[in-house]
């Protein structure tokens, strides 16, 4: 169990440390087993100090879910941004980042499994989930629209949304595959499968040089 030291950290940093401790506890013990006491011990603080930042465990869980989703999305967006302005490379890198570590890994899967079981019964978790899902779709829609435009195709918002939903579903499935059983696949196999499938969905528009497809 990792213990953190608060000492003279600022307010925002202390709150972030508590969120990280909450995620670690949920990953190890699930939502029910992740107690305020365990989270406090991991963070190296008292339960009383936790109440300075959160009203209770439910609020800590909500903040942790928001953090997990935001971190995963940010990782993919950072990879996309690093590609510059080329529409092919931006979509390429966004897709690959979403089906590769650290976005796809066993800890991410255990956290997702813990949270997703509560989404239907917790109104705030449901709101966080929906908000992130729509953000993700909007990013994909923009990437698809830019790519099609670079090939002289002006796609309607409905067509872009249709393609974004399909690509998101593909990403979700391969993310699950890589998180559950990455040892069963050759390095790079799942990103290649993802890119092959997205290129087919886009009517054969290549997202990488032909030499990279083998």
Main traits of this protein?
2 domains, Arc Repressor Mutant, subunit A, DNA-bd_HTH_TetR-type_CS, mainly alpha
SSE topology sketch:
Elements (H helix, E strand, L loop, with lengths): L10 H23 L2 H8 L3 H7 L3 H25 L5 H12 L7 H14 L3 H28 L6 H25 L7 H13 L13
Helix pairs in contact: 1-2, 1-4, 1-6, 4-5, 4-7, 5-7, 5-9, 6-8, 7-8, 8-9
Could you describe the 3D structure shown?
This protein has helices spanning 11-33, 36-43, 47-53, 57-81, 87-98, 106-119, 123-150, 157-181, 189-201. The protein has 214 residues and is mostly helical. It has 2 domains: 9-54, Arc Repressor Mutant, subunit A, CATH 1.10.10.60; 58-202, Tetracycline Repressor, domain 2. The mean pLDDT is 91.
Q: What is the CA–CA distance across the termini?
A: 43 Å
The total tally of domains equals: 2
Q: Which overall shape is indicated by the principal axes computed on the Cα atoms?
A: elongated
The radius of gyration computed from the alpha-carbon positions, rounded to a whole number of angstroms, is 20 Å
User: What is the beta-strand fraction?
Assistant: under 5%
| Contiguous helical run count | 9
Query: Roughly what percent helix?
Result: over 70%
CATH classification class of the largest domain: Mainly Alpha
Q: Mind telling me the CATH superfamily name of the largest domain?
A: Tetracycline Repressor, domain 2
Give a count of the beta strands, DSSP E runs of length 2 or more. 0
Mean pLDDT over the full residue set: 91
- How many strands, which pairing sense, and closed or not: the largest β-sheet? none
Structural class: mainly alpha
In CATH terms, what is the architecture of the largest domain?
Answer: Orthogonal Bundle
Low-pLDDT segments, ≥5 res: none
CATH fold title of the largest domain = Tetracycline Repressor, domain 2
- Reading the helices and strands in chain order gives HHHHHHHHH
């Amino acid at each position: 169990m990792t213990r953190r030291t608060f000492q003279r950290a600022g307010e925002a940093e202390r709150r972030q440390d508590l969120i990280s401790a909450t995620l670690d506890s949920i990953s190890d013990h699930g939502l029910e087993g992740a107690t305020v006491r365990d989270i406090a011990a991991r963070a190296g603080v008292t339960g009383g100090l936790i109440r300075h930042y959160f009203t209770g465990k439910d609020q800590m869980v909500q903040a942790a879910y928001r953090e997990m989703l935001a971190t995963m999305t940010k990782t993919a967006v950072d990879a996309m941004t690093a590609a510059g302005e080329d529409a092919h490379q931006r979509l390429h890198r966004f897709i690959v980042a979403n089906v590769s570590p650290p976005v796809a890994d066993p800890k991410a899967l255990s956290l997702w499994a813990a949270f997703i079981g509560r989404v239907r019964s917790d109104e705030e978790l449901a709101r966080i989930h929906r908000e992130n899902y729509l953000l993700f779709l909007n990013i994909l829609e923009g990437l698809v629209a830019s790519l099609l435009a670079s090939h002289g195709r002006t796609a309607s918002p409905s067509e872009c949304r249709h393609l974004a939903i399909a690509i998101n579903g593909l990403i979700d499935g391969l993310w699950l595959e890589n998180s559950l059983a990455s040892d069963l696949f050759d390095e790079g196999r799942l990103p290649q499968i993802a890119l092959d499938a997205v290129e087919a969905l886009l009517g054969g528009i290549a997202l990488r040089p032909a030499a990279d497809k083998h």
